[in-house]
Amino acid sequence: MLKHFNMNILCTFLLVVTAACFCTPELKPRPSIIMAFCMAAFLLHHFLMSRPNKVYLVDFACFKPSAACLCSKEALLDRAKRVGFLSDENFKLVTKILDRSGLGPWTYVPEGLLEIPPKLTLDEARKETDTVLFGAVDELLEKTGVEAKDIGILVVNCCLFNPTPSLSDTIVNRYKLRGNILAYNLSGMGCSAGVLAVDFAKQLLQAQPHSYALVLSTENEISSMYWGNNPSMLLVNCLFRMGGSAALLSSHPSDRHRSKYELIHTLRTHVGADDNSYKCVLQEEDEENKVGVSLSKELMNVARDALKVHITSLGPVVLPISEKLKFLVNLIERKVLKTKIESYMPNFKLAFKHFCIHTGGRAVLDRMQKSLELEDWHMEPSRMTLYRFGNTSSSSVWYELAYCEAKGRIKKGDRVWQMAFGSGFKCNTAVWLALNTIEPASIKSPWRDEINNFPVKADTLPVKSNK
User: What Cα–Cα distance (Å) separates residue 463 from each residue in 96, 104, 107, 242, 366?
Assistant: First the structure.
């Protein structure tokens, strides 16, 4: 609590000076000057104490599975056919979805799913999550040099796998974190939970100055797989892949010089009050009582509407004044003058240099690019992450940021927009300011050994059926 300590010293000093002035006749103090001096000190104290603590991203790590988890699209279809749970019609549907998904020919899945028959036990699900989270945390602690005992806040998010003890308890046990740690486990929050967890950690750090927060994001493939034949539930099997991330946030002012980014804004939008929005991504049982996550046909429209609400709140905070005026004039013409014109989409390229939009699927990325009027260069981190790693759920925005770094794109002063959608329905944002130019050769990254192979044209290798 250095800020509080320094201000207490200042107040004590002022009281001593004031008392000395009154008790020492030679100084001949003027009461008005003394009062003005004390008032100025009080206002300075109030200003400094009311400012929120700045939050920095010291570093982050994305887990890259071993070669044993590497699997081609053809191999996935082969195993699906050999397990035999898909009807002929749905096998053709899955093949078609994979062909148009935006995923590349090779992605990562847990070893348990590659076996025939697949291992679907609780122990196997724990093994998957432990492998991902421990790998990401080990790399992050090595990168930052921070000791586990110095971490005061822990936030773990995983949507569909929530064992007891919780995943956050598992991390506490593995790394022997201190007894007074503020540990939280977020579940059921969907793909936007990674950004949501950053916002949550930020608020905790601002209430706990001079602390470190460890934020972990993942999804569990084994527990989220659907083994039925409801077409609306099969998309999850086709898109989601193994992965996870770890990020270390700090409210230590002294960490600014070694941190990669400063968190300058977060925003959360929840449209779950609307029934269609609430139900568009829903975990439920199918006609054969098999549990899966169904995706409504209204999902794209819900995402579009949520984005409109979201950017209406985000725009005034991040856009330059010229864009704000254009947006305001358009709003007045439509709402006040009742002119039949389309709503104005602000040019967010004037506010952000880099865009890390959640890899919900090729159709989602196509819609976001069109809605935000972005160039292919801006969408490249999202599309290449989807191509190489698939949809890793809440951690996908970190793989995208790692791509920007590996390409040497991040320069000092750049602003990065992380945005993700998730069940509920939610749209969340984190805005980062690059504090330094990131040198690709100096970082350990899931892209480091293959970044020169990207970008590629997605979906150049159509999936061939094994029939």
Answer: 8, 10, 14, 20, 21
